[in-house]
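Summary for the funding panel

The consortium committed to producing paired sequence-structure records for every protein in the target list. Below we show the first two records in order, beginning with the earlier of the two.
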Amino acid sequence: MSASGTYKIRPAGRHILTIGRDLIQDVYAAVVELVKNAYDADSPDVNIKFMANPDHSGYSIIISDHGHGMSRDTVINKWMVPSTRDKLDRSTSPSGRLMQGRKGIGRYAASLLGTDMLLETVSDEGEKTTVYVVWGNFEDAEYLDDVEILIETTEVSEPPGTQLTMEGDSELLAGWDKEQFKKLRFELKKLKSPVNSALSSDDFCINLKVEGFPGVEDITETIEPFPLFDLFDYKIAGKIGADGKGTLTYSSQKVRNTADESIPFDFGEPTGCGELDIDVRVYDRDKDAIDSLIGRGLQDEFGDYVGKLEARRLLNASNGIGVYRNGFRIRPLGDPEFDWLRLNEQRIQNPSRKIGSNQVIGYVQIQSDERSGLIEKSARDGLRENAAFVQLNKITAKVIAELETRRFEFRMKAGLSRPVIKVERELERLFSFDELKRDVLERLTGSGIDQRTSDKIIEIISGEEEGKNKIADEIRQAVAIYQGQATLGKIINVILHEGRRPLNYFRNQIPNLRYWYKSFRKTENLKNLEKSLSIVEGIGMNAEFFVNLFNKLDPLAAGKRSKKEPLALKKEIENVLAVFEQGMKSQKVIAEITGSDDFRFSSWRQDVNAIFTNLVDNSLYWMSEKKILKRKIIIELSTDGNSLLHVDYRDTGPGIEPRFIANEVIFEPHFSTKPSGTGLGLAIAGEAAARNDLELKAFESEEGAWFRLQPKMEDEE
């Protein structure tokens, strides 16, 4: 049997429940959707009332507004039509508010809140329309159009507005306990931005009332954001245009009378996600910081100063960077447990510099999806992870990095960060007995001990010092090996990148070699042999590349360190540059090195490699990152006979912030201005210099970065 014809798709009856009860994330999201509908109706407020029946047999949820209401025609042809494009097409309300609801399904969230729903709406013309919906009817119906809904319309003299009443039975009532209402209040508090005036030009008031629920105190309150936002320790905020450029302002309240800092921001390309308004505020979590937070005015809703435990609880409850559109948060972005920027993951790698998600409260205000490309998921559980969302993440992380850099610098100077050990300096202090010997000698002399006995005691201490210094040398050797391994790890990418070309040659040419060899065997034609020989020569050249590369890497990979030896310093630096040769070619970086070819300096080869590997690696990164046109590395070796005066290392990159040079924070472990930097490169280079009685310093320069490697000055030791 064969048949043909046209047919229409008939949604099943439970389709309404699928886009409501099954698609909406939870009861909090359902309430939020209905609150947004009140906002879209140009209402100045929304009133949410939970009322339990006296006998606890059920409850009512009433959500009402004073908006423009709906006519009978709007109810039938728009409100009752699933997935309508009405709000999407209009985009703004009659009063100019940007529409929050865009999918045409938010109203069906009411199916999560009760077993039935009563809609009562009055239009501006005084037309009152009433709709009663029993959600179970959709569950039982085979097709959606089998469900009949009674609609009544009358003329009234009531003010315009809409009221939804949802009824729930005793089973649903049992779910609304103290914890549920606590979470609801939290969601409503975070629904509006803590700085609402910055994100929305009009006021919108959310009122909550809860009565008669067992085990729950009655609530009557106007929802306000958490009272933490203005009590920050550090803040960065500003607007970024669609072209990726803008201005940020950095502020701190850690000390009094600090001036704000204006920071030019350039993402280097269009944002790909429209214009952004960003405000991020950070709170230190140590004991003294919590005391300061309370002292700046942290109070509860009754105006009383909170205790330390309550302060921490508020931070735990309200932290997160929310994404807001037209003044309303897009859940769950900004929830404490939803770390969409992966701040905690980065903090684990670098706890001294990075902030965790429990330290930050803030917002990123985005434009409409048409202008930003940032599209909310239908289930109301965040934004689609498209290209625009990736860009939003990168830009926000870059803004936070500007704050992290300044916070790290302040905490280092103020002695607030966890102390980081500079190995060479600390070993000298730990195993230096000079002060001890002076103090002991003074006390012995003052006590009348004879000179011979005093000398013997000092001799014993000196013997102990000599033994401890041997241990110190062993520690230095171990640290040097580990730092060498860290430096070797840094150039693994270089090895992988540069080794790919000769490996591809082997892969492609060895089959050709077999072919021409077999051809020669068959024909004894010398031309075939010549082609084979040219391939063999190419294999030899590419094999030599690996031999040279591994010879250059071998000193860094050594398990034990040999003694210092006189090294041809210029040649050693050239070897480091050779490791990066292919990378410099691809990035069009020119390297120049001048100085005596014959000068030798007694040092460890691994340390020379570590110093210049980290300097070159930084130069290549920043010249590429900032898209520098003229890319050059200049190294000048200055000597006086057999003495090293200094080695100057310069590049044509973006340079170093003068304040980072002045306070030498760039040499502190964990300090980095790279978005994902570990902050170990320059610290390792500095340690490697110190082991060879050298010091690595940075200087201000009109163009690019300028480092100088020079012998330690006497007053530096």
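The next record, for a separate protein in the list, is shown here:
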Amino acid sequence: MKKLFVVIVCGAILAPVGAAAESAERPNIIFLLTDDQGWGDAAAWGHPYCKTPNLDRMTAEGRRFGQFYVANPVCSPSRTAFITGRYPARFRVHGHFAAHELNQARAMPDWLDPQAAMVTRQLQSAGYVTGHFGKWHLGSGEGAPEPGEYGIDSYVTIVSNGPQLRPTDALPEQYWWGKSTGIIMDHAIDFLRRNRDKPFYLNIWTLVPHAKLDPTPQQLAVYENLDPRPDHPAFGRWTQDYYKAADDFRSQMQVYAASITDLDTQVGRLLDTLEQLGLDQKTVLFFSSDNGPEDYHIRNAANAGVGSPGPHRGRKRSIYEGGVRQPLVVRWPGKIKAGVFDGTSVIGAVDFFPTVCALTGVAPPGNAELDGEDVSDILLGGQSRPRQKPLFWEWRSRVAGNPDYAPPPIAVRDGPWKLLTDADRSRVELYDIPNDPAETNNLAATNPDVVEPLAKLALDWKATLPPGEEQPLPPRKAKPQGKPMPDRAAMFKAKDSDRDDTLTIQEYLRNFPDQAEGRRRFPTFDANGDGMLSKDEFITMGGRFKP
């Protein structure tokens, strides 16, 4: 294995360079990835309330893509695609990495295989200094590799092993989540200052606007007079219908907008630092988010549930457009034409790895079988073109909230068409996406000549994935009736040993009479899928099981 790795490294260094390496100086790469930010969550992208002057500046100085897709509607698999250039299901990463018991229940590994080809390792092997600051969520807990084993030189992360943004034994700190983007950017800016004279690759992966949002009073003050309307036309049909019964939309939007605006402030710090250090013309900045906005029906995530998917159907956990169609801005002053909105090019997260290789002149690994394609010609040439490869999705878990957001589990996008299907084709949906981005007009019945080849394409792709479906939960055990309900608030307090207002699975299982039953119940209470239980989840979701 070591000899093979040396051959790959040498090949990467000596191979012919890509489109961007005509200049003597290789560009730096920064990948700024937010968490659960919607397609429309910036003023420049059509949001009527969020104040985002720095995101707007970045957009005006770069190229924005209107048809960019992540590879999965939740965090861990979405991130897997970016870093590996492959569909996450190829690694059996179907959902978020959680406690090892929960990973096993979903037929998942406990972490992303560190031996897989990684964009970080590929650039590191070619002389780039690599860094990662912020969220990781590609595996943590006992035995999990640190980010350094994935080709990263400097890192301070969270939901990970290794140096942490916040010590695991730290006492609860009010507003820490609201301050987290600034903390992450402090580390990133320090990395830039230390490596300004070297080619570098840097991931800045924020925690915001993932729930549970906790903006400081100063951040909230910006929106103290905000009086938003959920039926604003900028939100599109699906969001307007969604919030008809949301009486607390105003307060939730205040919290959400305050969090987005602080994120924007930190983006401004990054742009200013690049300019101050003379790195502006030397650095390609990618900006996107890992999946669609959170769902309002996830109780402990309500204040993150007002993000905007624009006109698109679905939200986080859905492979309809609102769950997988994300913002993408690429900025490289002097190289990428500024102020362009590209609503035609169809680009996927799996394209990131081969495109970065082309921009930096580093050959991709020859044996990696990357699923994406190099789209550097679209970035540098400024012209759209049809995709050479279709895009695929698979989602094996439930979809929260609105049942209209729960599609068939397998999807393919090829040309203007997007087809969604069950494995047995008992439910098939077909949409002309350029003309129907809201996915309201199912054309499957009237276009069998389109359905047949696309369905075969999707199911043939599905057949290439590693076997192992998600294991169904066993039937609930019948419980005696008539006993009083327990005080679940008191139960939560007794289990919450570190007083951080969340329960890990280990805390949840403490004094649980049937450990196997406890492990079965835990994921059914974990409504937002973050691997922990909030007090609200424990009381509200857990209350469904009567003693």
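Regarding this second record: Residues 1-23, 470-485, 542-547 have pLDDT under 50 and may be disordered. The longest helix spans residues 249-276.
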